[in-house]
Write a structure and sequence with these properties.
Layout (H helix, E strand, L loop, with lengths): L9 E7 L18 H5 L8 H12 L2 E4 L28 H28 L3 E10 L2 E2 L2 E2 L4 E4 L5 H16 L4 E3 L10 H8 L4 E9 L7 H10 L5
Parallel strand pairs: 1-2, 1-3, 3-8, 6-7
Antiparallel strand pairs: 4-5, 6-8
Helix pairs in contact: 2-6
């Protein structure tokens, strides 16, 4: 059993909130002309599920992946966030949106929470990696990184984890940046979990440049797995 530096058992959790672009059949009419949008970065995170699968297989004690499109409901947003529902799903009635949240968002989030609660109650510490990808160009901005590690700089376990992973990946030649292309403390799944749990929980978002898929896919997945921090 892997243990932390303090001697506590260590449990590793992986999630993939934007792993696919599926739309449930009952909402097909709402998205009937949305093929291009669903295929784009607005509909899902290309490459994220592949990285999630590789990391979870090598290091995971538990793993949760979602393949329903974020355009239905965004599992990485709080329900009060203005982007939790896309422009298409915001056109549904309040009752329909509540039903979507109850059937897709809430059970998925609750499964993750229940897993963490069980581990913490048993005296373990948790390392959670939420796997995402980002478009190489957004508007006029060219993203100048291969990999981003998003975390809360006030939480030492997250700082240490990201420092170790960043160093290992940079040694392999990858361009890695901290809290890029987004802020680690912005609204998201890991942010919500930090608010719920104490220092025994450490959550990091892994952001991968979509330009790496498929051209550098094999090297990327290999290096992510091999440099994953032991503690």
């Amino acid at each position: 059993m892997t243990r932390t530096r303090s001697g506590a058992p260590l449990r590793r959790l992986f999630t993939c909130e934007h792993g696919g672009r599926e739309i449930p059949a009952e909402f097909a009419a709402v998205f009937e002309d949305a093929a291009a949008e669903l295929a784009s970065h607005r509909g899902w995170d290309p490459g994220a599920l592949e990285a999630f699968d590789a990391l979870a297989a090598a290091h995971g004690d538990a793993a949760f992946a979602a393949t329903t499109s974020r355009l239905l409901v965004d599992l990485n947003r709080s329900l009060h966030h203005p982007q939790a529902f896309s422009a298409r799903s915001r056109g549904l009635s309040p009752g329909e949106r509540a039903d979507i949240a109850a059937r897709w968002w809430q059970p998925w989030r609750e499964s993750v929470v229940a897993t963490i609660e069980r581990w913490l109650a048993a005296g373990a510490e948790v390392r959670h990696v939420s796997v995402h990808s980002f478009t190489p160009v957004l508007g006029v901005e060219v993203r100048n990184a291969d990999i981003g590690l998003l975390y809360d700089p006030r939480r030492q376990a997250e700082v240490d984890f990201c420092r170790d992973w960043l160093q290992g990946l940079r040694q392999r030649g990858w361009r890695v940046r901290r809290n890029y292309p987004y802020r680690g403390i912005a609204d998201g799944h890991t942010t919500a979990l930090r608010r719920r749990f104490g220092p025994g929980y450490a959550g990091v978002e892994l952001e991968l440049n979509q330009a790496l898929f498929p051209a550098r896919r094999e090297a990327l997945l290999r290096d992510l797995v091999q440099t994953f921090p032991a503690r």
